[in-house]
């Protein structure tokens, strides 16, 4: 009941805010999250028991037994024959089931869908040489192989 009231309140706020404003976009995102929570409460994953939502990623449990996959969180091989692993349906982020609670980066596809305008300025980040040719997030070595 409280969730339904929050959804109705969020709808009122969206209609009251100026059109195409940042606050209105944030309110729409909040409304989507509230509706997803309500849907999860109505249907607690009976038809989709293999879906997990973490930081806007929609992870589904893989059934493939391929051994050529790499975990995007810990950068180690996912042994499909003996390990459970998940893939995000939006950005194809892969990780072990043990790494799933450790995911710290939000889904890129969700971010792009919320912020759909083009960036026309030059990228302000430093090059790989200033990062010692390592990933800025996980510090794993970056190479051409």
Structural write-up:
The protein is of the alpha+beta class and 145 residues long. Among the domains are: 1-42, no CATH class; 51-105, Wheat Germ Agglutinin (Isolectin 2), domain 1 (2-Layer Sandwich). Helix content is 30%, strand content 14%. It has three helices and six strands. It has helices at residues 2-16, 22-42, 108-114; strands spanning 51-54, 57-61, 69-70, 77-78, 85-88, 94-96. The strands form two sheets. The chain has a four-stranded antiparallel β-sheet with strand order 1-2-5-6, with no helix packed on it. Strands 3-4 form a two-stranded antiparallel ribbon. A hairpin with a 6-residue loop joins strand 3 and strand 4 (77-78). Helix 1 (2-16) runs antiparallel to helix 2 (22-42). The radius of gyration is 19 Å and the shape is flat. The chain starts with a helix and ends in a 31-residue tail after the last helix. The model has no long low-confidence stretch (mean pLDDT 79). It comes from Uria aalge (Common mure). This is DEFI8 protein. Residues 56-107 form the Phorbol-ester/DAG-type domain.
């Amino acid at each position: 009941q409280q969730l339904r009231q929050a959804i109705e309140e969020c709808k009122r706020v969206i209609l009251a805010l100026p059109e195409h404003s940042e606050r209105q976009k944030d309110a729409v995102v909040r409304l989507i999250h509230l509706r997803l929570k309500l849907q999860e409460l109505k249907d607690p994953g009976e038809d989709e028991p293999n879906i997990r939502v973490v930081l806007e990623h929609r992870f589904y449990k893989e059934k493939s037994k391929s051994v050529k996959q790499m975990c995007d969180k810990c950068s180690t091989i996912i042994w499909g024959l003996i390990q459970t692993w998940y893939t995000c349906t939006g950005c194809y982020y892969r990780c072990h089931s043990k790494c799933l609670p450790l995911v710290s980066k939000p889904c890129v596809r969700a971010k792009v869908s919320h912020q759909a305008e083009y960036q026309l300025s030059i990228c302000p980040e430093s090059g790989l040489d200033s990062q010692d040719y390592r990933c800025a997030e996980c510090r794993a070595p970056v190479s051409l192989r």
